[in-house]
Amino acid sequence: MLRPSTLLSPFRLGDLQLANRVVMAPMTRCRAEGHIPNELMARYYVQRSSAGLMVTEATQVSPLSIGYPNTPGIHSAEQVAGWRKVTQAVHDAGGRIFLQLWHVGRIAHPDWIGGELALAPSAIAAKGQTYTPKGMQPHAAPRALELAEIPGIVEQYRVGAANAKAAGFDGVEIHAANGYLIDQFLRDGTNRRSDSYGGSIEHRARFLLEVTEAVVGEWGARRVGVRLSPSGTFNDMSDSDPERTFTYAARALNAHPLAYLHIVEAGEGDLRHGGRTVPTKALRQAYEGVLMVNGAYTAARAEQVLAAKGADLVSFGSSFLANPDLPARFAAGAALNAPDTATFYGGGEKGYVDYPALPAAAGV
Predict the structure, then answer these.
(1) Structural domain that includes position 201
(2) 180, 297, 352, 355: the active-site residue
(3) If you count Cβ atoms within 10 Å of the first and of the last residue's Cβ in the chain, which end, N or C, has fewer?
């Protein structure tokens, strides 16, 4: 029977005490009708509140940042009120929860944003198709942000961070991964600018660093995390030298004593689509603070990386989606529920809040 020790041990995250090192990764679930968090979402997060920390699904900082159906926002009073009900329920259950701040950039199809063109560092459309109100359609070409517009986008992140505080969150995570706006600025496959936000890695990283500074100004660094996907190809992403790009970004983030840096490691799909693996070890060496890793980890593999000091925290995605009591299952060495992929994105209770937990006697 597997009984992890380090994985289930308490962890001090800045000024927060976490019950364990099992983090629930951010996962888009598309249950926010009208882009407003609701009671069903509160139930979902409460069920998983035994995680040391939960990071919410990606949450829009702007009405022009909608890329998928029924994803929540954090830019209106109604959204703040909806999230406040979620955080209150989670805290009543003893949980800790960060909100993930998100701008999809070029992935926003015009049909989601009133017919306007998506915003991006450069006018380069992603290859492939995306979800729209009319079904799957090819990605539309975005509009390159004017230099004078960029401070306004940074301000949207700051306001989103302030709204997250008003909604009662314990902190925020900046979504700089998975081919969305910050990632689009970082990588030279999507950033062809020739001004102070493009060209050299120092210029391409500027947007990430300005967003981080703005969000830290609202929360203090120890309540802010950043998520990067150095090896990722999702949303048609590429970079000519990803190890150099992302080790630079990791070192630059040392300017702030952040809560953590969250690294999405290379997956099978990334390798299949030509992604170049950036070793987590290189990022561990570059970044001086708490490192969280994500990448189809099992309890045994998570225990190994923690024991080897390769990371401090491990986040779990689909396994937490299907197992609301994941830490208890790890402690008991119990079998895991299989995730229902057909219900990942949208629907109601099925595949969302109806996964069974262990009988109480089998828990921690």
Answers:
(1) 11-26+44-316
(2) 180
(3) N
